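Module 6 notes. Inverse folding takes a fixed backbone as the condition and produces residue identities as the prediction. Think of it as a translation problem where the source language is geometry and the target language is the twenty amino acids. Below is one complete input and output pair. Work through it position by position during the lab.
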């Protein structure tokens, strides 16, 4: 799923993911950060993407258990984004290629894209050579912000980052 490949046919219907033991409280954000690079979103976030993203997204329903093991979120999804674009400006970006899989980057530290290699209608997509990185166009970002969706963190184009 972190590579943006479809899994719907193989995904079980009763998945419960647990927050780490250090996370306390009863309120879950609309975008749940995690260490396995999955886009975990609330029903409200899903509805916003459905209405405004114009992206090919496979939604896999999950529940989220709190630090005590009790289900505290039933209306969550793994939003498996299936759109990929090969648009990294390799001359301006800072990347790492270890060669184990030459078609994929092993690290991304600063990103610049070649905009004419991204279709005009693409508002949300993965980088083809770094599928764990999901890009959002400014107009969709503004829509997400206006909707008051919580838990989302952005890295601006050209900013330092560490994506593996």
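Target side of the pair, the amino acids:
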């Amino acid at each position: 799923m972190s590579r943006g490949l479809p899994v719907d046919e193989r995904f079980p219907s009763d998945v419960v993911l647990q927050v780490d033991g250090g996370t306390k409280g009863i309120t879950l954000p609309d975008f749940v950060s995690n260490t396995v690079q999955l886009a975990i979103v609330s029903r409200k976030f899903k509805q916003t993407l459905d209405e405004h993203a114009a992206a090919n997204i496979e939604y896999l329903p999950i529940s989220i258990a709190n630090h005590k093991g009790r289900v505290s979120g039933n209306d969550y999804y793994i939003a498996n984004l299936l759109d990929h674009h090969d648009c990294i400006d390799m001359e301006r970006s800072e990347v790492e290629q270890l060669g184990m899989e030459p078609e994929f980057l092993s690290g991304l530290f600063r990103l610049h894209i070649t905009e004419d290699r991204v279709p005009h209608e693409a508002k949300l997509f993965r980088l083809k050579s770094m599928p764990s990185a999901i890009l959002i166009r400014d107009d969709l970002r503004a829509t997400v912000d206006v909707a008051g969706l919580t838990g989302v963190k952005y890295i601006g184009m050209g900013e330092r980052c560490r994506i593996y």
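Reference fact for the lab report: The first helix runs from residue 43 to 52.
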